[in-house]
Amino acid sequence: MIDILTNILVDPSDKGNLLWDEAQGLAYNPRLRLRYPFRNGFPRLHKNEASPAKNEEEHRGFLYGTGPLQEGDPTKTSHEDPEARIARYEGFAEYYDTIMQDDSNRGELARSAYELLSSLAGKGEGIALDIGCGTGLSARFAKNLGYDPIGVDLSADQLRVASTRLPVVLGDSAELPIASDSVKLAYSTFTTTDWDDLARSAREIYRVLSSGGRYIDVGVHPCFYGGFSEALPEGGILQKVGYNGTQYLEPETLKGSVRSKVGAWHRPLAEVLNLFLEAGFRLVRISEGGPEKLPSLLALSFIKD
Fold first, then answer.
1. Cα separations in angstroms, 176 against 130, 154, 215
2. I need a surface site. Which of 7, 51, 83, 258 has the fewest CB within 10 A?
């Protein structure tokens, strides 16, 4: 599992290659002299997980293979960034995994999303990068299409479950630990409403895709589903004042099993489209769907020319 990862993983800060000491569970950036831990079955390539080499001897030992890398304390981090995104899904892995497979909860919606993803992705081969993979539920669909999925997520708790389904790495969508021009397909499901800086994430996705590569985003429809939409008893939707603005909605302001715990970003459709277009993408297809009569899901397919 580690081999497929190390071929495309880089330091999220300078996007350079890493040296790997799989025996000790460490990755090392000799340029910045930073080490990243490999714990619980996956590497943690996030700035808040980094720690500096202890001394020149350790640096040279890892760089030239003249000696073992000192173990250090994996709980200590020396590069904590106060502006780094919060992993809001910590502590909810089993809960999330259960409700997204339960048809009496969010299972039907999730299955519709994965079917939309499959129809837009089509059959293929090679690496498919699942950005914001959560517990890895979409991996089965990517594999059925012929791809080798790799997951990236900010939550170690979610990745603990996801690692049983696909190779994963802890990382931030706004600072992906993935080499430039290295993947042909990237996708996200129910994730962009969690990204604090969608513009930056869009630019990062564009960077990691090779020429002709595709990005598919499947999520709740901002026009019919979310903090400013209310389902009416007769089957319609009431759109409340506030749709045109962009804001993070706190958990206590939202209904629903997941969002009432982690909150969500609301962005109007025009803003979502424009941020990806400004990153350099070309929009090639839009699909709507979902289990309800009105579309609860929106799928966007972009290409990097």
1. 12, 10, 14
2. 83
